[in-house]
Amino acid sequence: MSAQRSGSNDEPHSDHHPKRDRRSNRSNHPDRSNRQNRPNRPAPRQVLDDEGRVLPDATEPDLTGEELLEMYEYLVLARRFDERAISLQRQGRLATYAPMGGQEAAQVGSAFALDDADWTYPTYREHAAKLVRGLDVERVFLALRGHGEGDATPEGYNVMPEYIPISTQIPQAVGAAWATKLKGGTAATLCYFGDGATSEGDFHEGLNFAGVFDTPNVFFCNNNGWAISVPRERQTASATIAEKAKAYGFEGVRVDGMDPLAVYQVTKEAVEKAKNPDEDELRPTLIEAVQYRFGAHTTADDPDRYRDGVPEEWLAKDPLPRMEAFLRETGRLDDEAAEALSASVETRIDEAIAAAEAAPRPEPDEVFEYVHAEPTPQLRRQRASLDDLRDAHGEAAFESDR
């Protein structure tokens, strides 16, 4: 029995679920233009086939049965977090949300490959990666509800606050990794971004610097095939994103981003190389995780305007049933354990939502507190405008029961 969704009073909406569209539509597939189908385009590395069986030429990663079950639990947690977050946003209980359905394996598998001392630079979508790195579910929900505390990483957790502008995290991640190297540290720095970010100058500047200064970076590109409404073939004339690494002198690797075991293996190898490269290789690696997001770019987006559902070949790669099938086939998971795991995840999310919604709402004045050491003239004018609104409408206008 697979882990099933249980009913909840915050789940009246079903717009998260992918459409099953059997029509042939070139724009649905991230690599389905003539340019992408060049004969020399390497297939993404895989461990599991679509049915969850280990491929004949692949090997299982060096993880214990307990660690594999933990990885699966994070996949289930990520899927349920995603479903609940979308529903909460539709009810006005969360801010705009960036879904991750279909992309859980890329986040969980990559974050699982990091050591505690390694650093993570996330985008606005790496909710699951944050959870794997140790942040609690309540804190992630708090951030989505506008609490500054949610974005403040606790001491001892090497996770940067999420980056909203596209690709700005890349040069910063490179600078941090360079600082680690200069100080004689051994940590690696993993930086997430999407395929659209590879069209930004920050991507090229960051990777070029990483190659020149041989920084201990792992660049993790979630190639979902779409940068909002812009398809992959309009981003680049390169046959793959991974091959862009050649221009900077280091290795690029393609991986099935919906295969958690393959993602873990590739990222683990990249992390080890970042820390202990051979004499003839540079430390950085560009990983292209080929995947397909089932839902919208954000809850403010309508993907039906530019794509026709989710093709069957991508639905068949759903990372959760693949991982579950693998664990069952290898005797690591049965019905009882799956049901207990699902119930535990549900309780964890319920408690996190309750705690986040019970937290005192941030004061409107807080938006002026943490940008500049001293308020600028513009901020002073804006704060005076807020005071005028208070005088005109009273404090009740700024209060809410949610």
Can you tell me about this structure?
The chain has 402 residues and is α/β, with parallel strands linked by helices. The protein is 38% helix and 9% strand. The protein has helices spanning 65-90, 104-112, 127-132, 137-144, 148-151, 169-182, 201-213, 260-275, 312-315, 319-329, 335-358, 377-393, and strands spanning 20-21, 119-121, 189-194, 217-223, 226-227, 230-231, 251-256, 285-290, 310-311. It has a five-stranded parallel sheet with strand order 2-3-4-8-7, with helices on both faces. It has a two-stranded parallel sheet with strand order 1-9. Helix 1 (65-90) crosses helix 2 (104-112), helix 1 packs across helix 11 (335-358) and helix 6 packs parallel to helix 7 (201-213). 43% of the residues are buried.
